[in-house]
Amino acid sequence: MEYLWFWIVAFFFVGYFVLDGFDFGVGMSLPFLGRNDVSRRQVINSIGPVWDLNETWVIVAGACLFASFPEWYATLFSGFYLPLLLILLALILRGVSFEYRHQRDSARWRAGFDRMIVIGSVVPALLWGVAFGNIVQGVALDENHVFVGGLLSLLNPYALLVGVTTLLIFFLHGVLFVALKTDGEVHTDARRLAKLAAAPTVLIAVATVIWTIVMAAGREAPLLWLVIACGAIAAVFLLGAVVFSLRGLDGWAFASAVITVAAAVVMLFGALFPYVMPSTIDDAFSLTIENASSTPYTLTIMSWTALIAIPLVLLYQGWTYWVFRKRVTRVSIEAAAAH
Question: Cis peptide before 274, with omega less than 30 degrees from 0?
Answer without folding.
Answer: yes
